């Protein structure tokens, strides 16, 4: 029924055929859209130490290219979500991906660290259209009941991006230098513009002509912020994501500068850690409908504090060993794979008429917290792995407390 309604809506609006919602290729394109975030942050990680030398910049300045990306990503989501509720997912998506492509070109043409930082902000402005509208399209097509399962399976496929992006980026760094990753991202964006333009049609059957009115917009966001369930899911999601971003922000310096690994070997270690995320998403995809999101979030939040505390304890007891970081992070990443799809579905599911706004506000809070944590890891950098592990342990504890104090009590 939902699929027939979407096809009828598209034929009415455009008079042309559409790629069938729920088809394999439709899901592949959605997964690629959601992957804009991890590709943009993970692919150039092996190049961060080289960029530090190239620009004569400090560690905190180079890590600012990550934090400014998240800041731009966070702010832009507040715009894209309501725009898609007002004008539809497809035109806003095409606009955002095009901006991303041109900003990626500006990144690889940058001659100073300041120019790269500015270009990364505009890259984030375009990139956030993919995850925000990709999640909203999932809600449009599959509804609340199946959204968690579909997001989990998409997360499993999307995990190929952070698993292989640092490895691929490491070889690009060794062979061609730091600009090569941004060349790849520009090509990736322009290919997706073509695919979305030809194959992905409108899925928003609840076009809201008042979604962009300031009073209505403020009212929607205020209602979401006051909703205990929404905020519980968002904060839980934000904690595990911020723990992941602390690892993203600090791991290249830890593995390459502290442990002395080559950039391509760092990519291998990063890929092993991401296998934990893949494991978590597969668990979520298989069991979320069977046991329910609340049960999955209970076990996921427990794994987050377990992995964070193990990482903190082992690194402080056995500093300087690669396995002391990789093994506990594998556990933490299982929690990320379990928690994120279930918390996303829990946050967005109850709001079909403002799914774009709910997705945008969730993403804003998630990215804003992660940007602060990432910047803190950079400022506390002391030539060891300890600042990174402290941040991850705190975020694991925050995830567990959020579940125990907000989500579980809501369920009770």
Short structural description:
Helix content is about 85%, strand content about 0%. The protein is mostly helical. Helix 4 packs across helix 5, helix 8 (about 130-160) crosses helix 16 (about 355-380) and helix 12 packs antiparallel against helix 15.
Protein described:
By secondary structure, this protein is an all-alpha fold. The radius of gyration is 20 Å and the shape is globular. The protein has one domain (20-411): Growth Hormone, Chain: A (Up-down Bundle). Residues 9-17 have low confidence and may be disordered. It is built from 17 helices and no strands.
- How big a fraction of the residues is strand? under 5%
Average pLDDT over all residues = 79
Helix percentage: over 70%
Strand pairing plus helix content: what structural class? mainly alpha
Total beta-strand segments: 0
Largest sheet: none
Report Rg. 20 Å
The gross shape turns out to be globular
Summed up, the domain count is: 1
User: Architecture, CATH level 2?
Assistant: Up-down Bundle
CATH class: Mainly Alpha
Q: Termini distance?
A: 34 Å
Individual helix count:
17
From the structure above, extract its key features.
84% helix, 412 residues, Growth Hormone, Chain: A, mainly alpha
How is the secondary structure organized here?
Blueprint: H1 2-14, H2 24-34, H3 36-42, H4 48-55, H5 59-87, H6 89-108, H7 113-127, H8 129-158, H9 160-176, H10 179-199, H11 214-226, H12 228-258, H13 263-291, H14 293-317, H15 322-348, H16 355-379, H17 386-411
Helix pairs in contact: 2-8, 2-10, 4-5, 5-6, 5-7, 5-8, 5-16, 6-7, 6-8, 6-10, 8-13, 8-15, 8-16, 9-13, 12-15, 12-16, 12-17, 13-14, 13-15, 14-15, 14-17
């Amino acid at each position: 029924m939902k699929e027939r309604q979407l096809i009828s809506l598209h034929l009415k609006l455009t008079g042309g055929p559409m790629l069938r919602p729920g088809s394999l290729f439709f899901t592949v394109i959605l997964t690629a859209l959601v992957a804009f975030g991890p590709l943009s942050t993970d692919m150039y990680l092996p190049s961060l130490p080289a960029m530090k030398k190239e620009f004569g910049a400090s560690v905190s300045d180079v890590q600012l290219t990550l934090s400014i990306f998240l800041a731009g990503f966070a702010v832009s989501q507040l715009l894209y979500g309501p725009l898609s509720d007002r004008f539809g997912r497809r035109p806003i998506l095409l606009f955002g991906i095009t901006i991303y492509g041109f900003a990626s070109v500006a990144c690889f043409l940058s001659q100073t660290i300041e120019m790269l930082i500015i270009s990364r902000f505009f890259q984030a402005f375009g990139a956030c259209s993919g995850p925000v509208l990709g999640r909203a399209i999932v809600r449009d097509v599959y509804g609340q009941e199946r959204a968690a399962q579909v997001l989990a399976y998409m997360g499993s496929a999307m995990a190929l991006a952070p698993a292989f992006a640092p490895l691929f980026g490491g070889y690009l760094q060794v062979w061609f230098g730091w600009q090569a990753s941004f060349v790849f991202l520009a090509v990736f964006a322009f290919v997706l513009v073509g695919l979305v333009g030809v194959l992905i049609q409108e899925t928003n059957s609840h076009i809201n002509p008042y979604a962009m009115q300031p009073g209505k917009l403020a009212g929607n966001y205020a209602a979401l912020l006051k909703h205990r369930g929404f905020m519980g899911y968002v904060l839980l999601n934000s904690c595990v994501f911020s723990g992941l971003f602390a690892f993203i922000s600090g791991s290249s310096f830890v593995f390459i500068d502290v442990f002395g690994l080559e950039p391509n070997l760092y990519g291998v270690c990063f890929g092993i850690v991401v296998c934990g995320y893949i494991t978590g998403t597969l668990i979520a995809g298989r069991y979320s409908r069977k046991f329910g999101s609340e049960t999955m979030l209970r076990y996921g939040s427990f794994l987050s504090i377990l992995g964070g505390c193990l990482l903190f304890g082992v690194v402080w007891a056995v500093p300087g060993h690669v396995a002391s970081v990789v093994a506990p992070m594998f556990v933490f990443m299982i929690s990320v794979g379990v928690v994120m799809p279930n918390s996303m579905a829990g946050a967005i599911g109850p709001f079909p008429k403002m799914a774009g706004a709910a997705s945008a506000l969730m993403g804003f809070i998630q990215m804003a917290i992660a940007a602060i944590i990432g910047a803190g890891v950079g400022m506390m950098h002391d030539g060891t792995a300890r600042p990174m592990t402290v941040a991850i342990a705190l975020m694991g504890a925050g995830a567990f407390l959020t579940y125990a104090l907000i989500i579980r009590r809501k369920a009770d």
